[in-house]
Amino acid sequence: MDLLKQIAFRLLAIPITLLIITAALYGIIMLAPAEERAALYLPPRLPSTLDENEFQQVMDRLIAEHGLDDPYPVQYVRWLGELLRGDWGWSPTFNEDVLVLLKRRLPVTAELTLYSVLVLIPMALISGVLAGWRAYSPLDRGFRMSAFIATSIPPFVLGLFLLSIFYVGLNWFPPGRTGIYTLTLSTSDFRTITGFLTIDGILNGRPDVVADAFRRLVLPVFTLSLLYWATISRVTRVAMIEEKNKEYMLAARAKGLKDRHLEWRHAFRNAAIPAFSAMVLSAAGLVTGVYVIEVVFNFNGLSELVTQGFFVSPDAPLVMGFAIFSVLLVLPIMLVFDLLRTFIDPRLREEGVDI
């Protein structure tokens, strides 16, 4: 029952967090004058065709139609209602509804993030446990050197370096998501079910597509995971060293329990708790990091949308939709890590514990 209460509490916290974040985001938009926000509704070439009086009349009409001079609470509630109804605005850059654009690009980003998490968690836990239990051994020294290098190299630099070796030099792992399958997948009877090429390829009976999709995921997944692997595995290592020297471990050794049993049955369970806490804190960085990796490895996911919306032409609806969509990606990842932490540590399930 305590675990169910904790799950209910965290699920309830998601909409509250969304309300706070969306209120802050819309408050930033409200800092701009009503005339500047009304200009976002104008076609790009229209202002040059109007004289000053006609332009002002158009601006006044837009402000009145969209209620841009209403008080902040009124505008925020109206905007939030439109979001809940699925009206996220219109993107003049892509000439398409914002929500449709985001939903179409989401599987690319989600697939890359999912496999990075699946690689990151076991790799960080196992390496941190092995290094911490064998502290100051050659294995631990090699681990600390690797973690130092991983945290010292920016991900985009590492990505370019790996591309120069494994694509340009060896032609093992090409960039891009589909490559030669771009045309064949769109013109054949290949059905898009989940949007994940690795899964849709299995469902369509196309092992060649699955193999190619995994081949193209190797470098971006490794690049995205490496920095967070170093952070989380370091936390795990320190926790393992602390657990190894506690009195209950000394008592267990005195009873004749084997080191491998102590390492994985006792010390690992306790050391995993701070590791999952570090994962919760790294969730936002993981999602924002995936956008950089998409640009480096030419994965046309959500990052391409925000790049166009920020730098090519100002597109406020697209940028706002991207920001909200990013929050919706971060919160479930944080929820999963937090629930895993609660499941591992029974103390966090006790009533009255402040998490």
Distance between the termini: 16 Å
Helix tally equals 14
Major sheet characteristics: 2 strands, antiparallel
Q: How are the strands ordered across the major sheet?
A: 1-2
Query: What does the oligomeric state look like here?
Result: single chain
Q: Using only CA atoms, what is the Rg?
A: 25 Å
- Can you tell me the residue ranges where pLDDT is under 50 for at least 5 consecutive residues? 351-355
Structural class: mainly alpha
Please report which band the strand proportion falls in: under 5%, 5-15%, 15-25%, 25-35%, 35-45% or over 45%. Answer: under 5%
Instruction: Write the H/E string, N to C.
Output: HHHHEEHHHHHHHHHH
Share of helix among residues? over 70%
Number of strands: 2
The rough form would be described as: globular
- Average pLDDT over all residues: 83
Labels describing this entry:
355 residues, globular, 2 strands, mainly alpha, disordered C terminus, 14 helices, two-stranded antiparallel ribbon
